User: Fold this.
Amino acid sequence: MSEIVFANVSRAFRRDGRDFPALESIDLTVGEREFVAIVGPSGCGKTTCLRMVAGLEFPTSGEVTVGGAAVRGPGPERAVVFQQFALFPWKSVAENIEFGLKAKGVEAAARRATIAGFVELMGLQGYESAFPHQLSGGMQQRVAIARAYALDPAVLLMDEPFGALDAQTRSVMQEELVKLARRNPRTVLFITHAVEEAVYLADRVVVMTRRPGRIREIIDVGRVRREEGWDRLERIEEVMDQPSFVHLRTHIWKSLREQQQTNGQSNQGGEQ
Amino acid sequence: MAVSRTKASRAQLFALSAAGFASLFALWSAVAASGWVAPQFLPPPWAVAERFAFLLSHPFAGYTIEQHLVSSIGRFLMGFGLAAAIGVPLGLAMGWFRWLDEVVSPLFEAVRFVAPIAWVPFAALWFGTGIGGPTLVIFMGAFPPALVNSYRGARFVEPRLIEAAQTLGAGSWRVIAQVLLPASVPSIVAGLRISAGLGWQSLVGAELIVASSGIGYLMVKGQSNMSSAIVMSGMIAIGIVGFAIDIALRRVEAAIHARRGL
Assistant:
């Protein structure tokens, strides 16, 4: 059981003795082994949503549950891949992947086997003893993904994992993540501000409003993907060429743009 | 001469350092040779060198200068080792556990301003003049930087590294040992360099008052023999060893930075 449920979740930040709402009345269920992406303008609280599932932040009101139990703190069954990789700079690639396995109490022989498996899966052969600063951004994020996957987590939380990568590396990583997710399905919550990335990867895309963050719309991309047979296509650019893909992307873009405009108008007198 | 901080070559820098030393010795020699100052007050450099060489092979105050140094270094290693062994883990734990910080910080702040040398009477009373007393004095000198730098190191670890460790299933102790400690190593080593310097200074101070061997003891005995050359030999030995300790720790620091790619 690894269903993620946001039940009427709100989150406010206190600054200078005043409460600033960051998220308001979020109701969302990410089903078992479903891949849900949240898109929204920066500052809309999408990262806060992920951090509340990770147990790194807590709702001001409402409740976040995973597998039916309220989230009380971080745990290895909910692995996180951070935007800035967050690799331990003093540990080698293999030692970074090993960290969680050690904390979990996995035996040395089993650890070695798991590390070897993920090193191969993520194309990191030959870099096992390299340190993070010796690797490119793309390679570092492969290590971070391997480190998270190695724990065999029920839930995978990814916070703009490809945001710091250049466009080409990003496409390659997106393709690989899709392959990984098909072979090894997990309940995934994926945060991004890149609309195409969300449509390419997710089963459902959640569009959020500008601060305070609310859910504006949820789009069932999975249905379109199945009907249009995107999975037949090997490469990301072929998928992105499909009229059905372009249609969805444009729809989400508009959704984001419209609220930006309406927000812009309402903000004239509103903000400060 | 236009030698900027960034462009100076190693050879230029070395030449400048050598020039500094040479000027000091020239001035010293000139003053001593002029006869303005009596040799009892300021022995000329060559007399000190001669005395230093003599002390290498002839015991004074019971031991040769090397034996005195070995005795001092032994005490230094005890006190410094103890300061590092207690200060570093305590500082890291204080950086993680808020309650421990609240318990220890006020005590520490109050005691920190008591100069190490002011502990000498109690050190002698409680631990005697052999190895225990001087060890306590050097501990009091070396402890604060060891503690403060590991505490600061732990407090300024990038939060995302701690969060990453926690989401990978690490508990408090694993976070301290596997994240705070390695992440704070540069800060800890910088602190230990200061600790070693202060400890070495405090030790010699302690030996001037309580000890029956050691380089400070040699200097006190030299003073009561009215031999300024012996006192200066002691000062030179202190300088050389202190410099060597600092160079050794600087090497460690550089090696760590290189490994991290800093």
